Amino acid sequence: MKTVYTCFCTDVIHEGHINILTEARKYGKVVVGILSDSAMIRFNRFPTIDFDKRISIVRDLDIADEIVIQDDIMYDKIIEKIRPDYVIHGDNWKTGPMKAIRDNAEKLLSSYGGEVIDVPYTYNENVKRIDLRIKEKLAMPEYRRKRLKQLIRMCPIVKTIEVHSGLTGLIAEKTIVENDGGLDQFDAMWISSLCDSTAKGKPDIELVDMTSRFRTIDDVMEVTTKPIIFDGDTGGLIEHFVYTVRTLERMGVSAIIIEDKTGLKKNSLFGNEVVQTQDSIEHFCEKIRAGKKIQLTDDFMIIARIESLILEQGMGDALNRAFAYVQAGADGIMIHSRRKDPAEILEFCDKFREKDKETPIVVVPTSFNEITEAELAEHGVNVVIYANHLTRSAFPAMEQTARDILRYHRAKEADDRLMPIKDIITLIDEL
Ligand code: SPV
Ligand code: MG
Fold first, then answer.
1. 194 CA to middle of ligand 1, Å?
2. Does the C-beta of 165 come closer than 6 Å to ligand 1?
3. Which of 37-41, 368-372, 421-425 has the highest mean pLDDT?
4. Alpha carbon of 125 to those of 132, 150, 426: distances in Å?
5. Residue 111: CA atoms inside 13 Å, Cβ hemisphere, count?
6. 269 in contact with ligand 1, CB cutoff 6 A
7. Do residues 366 and 387 lie in contact, with contact meaning Cβ atoms separated by under 8 Å?
8. 259, 306, 366: residue to mutate for ligand 1 pocket, most atoms within 8 A of CB
9. Which residue CA neighbors atom 10 of ligand 1 most closely?
10. Rg (CA), the chain
11. Which of 21, 104, 183, 317 fits a 20 to 30 Å CA distance from 219?
12. Ligand nearest, relative to CA of residue 336
């Protein structure tokens, strides 16, 4: 009896899956792998039901002879374990990022005479509707809000990219790459005060008011499902901050990061080149406590951002503040630096972790950009934020186009570099 293997990473079984299983039956004993949560989030979506439930929906079908767990996106370990004669999959994995998975399976199978079977992928109105419902569920506030905490538990490091509009939200949502024999995508989105202000042509001095910042969140939320970390600047007056927390929590934002500065806030990357005042520990703790007291769910996180290294107040001050803020109820600590060398960030993380193994640490490696995610994770960092990179990549490209049109008195020279019109008009999915 031959063995046929297929891997499922779905929350809902539909006719496409039944079709694969029915086909598989024709070839022999059917083994179904259920992809683990941590592998699923690297190339697919976040699961809307838990792992045990995903196993039981396949078991209830009563078609599989055996159910196994597949821990990795790539098939190396599972093929070594069960040595199937065939791996069967919908033919949608012949193109796009999933092609890397197919290539991997085919290569492994061919080493001992096994084969890949591609069955026509089922995509009809019904499947489309199911797909859309899963996406919509993931975008609902109660599902989206708690996802950052879930990701912090599941991922070695939560990868977060700056967004400031529906379009940049779509880039964060949909970009998947094949790299180092795996697939990868961003886990979360950062609504940066710098980039939200810059997109409106305004300085990053808490000038763009909260109503307008909420509007940006709404634009992003309309077209995405991933969790949002909101840059709340100083959080403003305590009396105002509690309203901000309430609104963000209701919208389904996962976390606000507030920085321990007071007065006219300027962007941290200016450091001491401009006048910036650090808040007192007592007052900032009061702000954290007020925010924690007002929130209604356990899902929402208030993350305290420490500016001591930016303002050259020393490592001792940074650590004192970190422990005080955690004591006041902060759900995470963001430590910032504008040095190119990550040494002070790593020293902070190591010293903080000596005493606190749990509280999530967030870093923003804009200046110390040579350090890798794996190195940060080794020092206990849980969330990495690429805080301004989509804005900084778009601006020079747009400026170059404007210059070229002025220089050549026509658009041809610029156009050759641009996204084709056909691609732009089909970029956005329609319902
Ligand atoms: C932002 O992105 O607005 C931040 C991070 O606050 S930084 O610009 O590095 O201060
Ligand atoms: Mg900011």
1. 6
2. no
3. 368-372
4. 10, 32, 19
5. 9
6. yes
7. yes
8. 366
9. 268
10. 24
11. 183
12. 1
- Active-site residue identified among 204, 233, 260, 299: 204
Tokens, residue 316:
């001792």
% pLDDT > 70, the chain? 100
What topology is assigned to 140-387 in CATH? TIM Barrel (3.20.20)
Backbone angles phi and psi of 384, in degrees to 5: -115, 135
Report the distance separating Cα 400 and Cα 419, nearest Å. Answer: 14
The string of DSSP codes covering 334-360 is: EE----SSTHHHHHHHHHHHHH-SSS-
Alpha-carbon distance of 427 to 417, in angstroms, equals 17
Give residue limits of the domains in the chain: 3-129, 140-387, 393-425
**DSSP bridge pairs for 302:** 256
Angle at CA of residue 246, ends 240 and 252, nearest 5°: 135
Structure tokens at 94: 């012949």
Fold of 3-129: Rossmann fold (3.40.50)
Who contacts 157 (Cβ-Cβ below 8 Å, separation ≥6)?
Answer: 373, 374, 376, 377, 381, 382, 383, 384
Ligand closest to Cα of 233 equals 2
- Nearest of 280, 394, 385, 283 to residue 332 by alpha carbon: 385
Kindly report, residue by residue over 277-289, the tens digit of the pLDDT.
Answer: 999 999 999 999 9
